[in-house]
Amino acid sequence: MKNKALFFLFSILFFLKTNAQCAMCRAVLESEETQSAAEGINNGIKYLMAVPYILIGGIIFFIYRKYGTLKK
């Protein structure tokens, strides 16, 4: 238990700022003047982030609908 608390303390207090981008993507996005590629990559990230939430929301909806109709 003491090790878990110590690990949690270190993970909260001592973190490193990381860049979650490959070097080539970052170089291309920083060098472009029109920023159209950056907007495209940001939109792609939004779509990739939204899909799991939509799937989980659909599953929860169908489970609620199935069990909600059985109780009535």
From TrEMBL:
Keywords: Membrane, Signal, Transmembrane, Transmembrane helix. It comes from the Bacteria. Residues 1-20 form the signal peptide. The keyword Transmembrane applies. The chain crosses the membrane at residues 44-64. This is Uncharacterized protein.
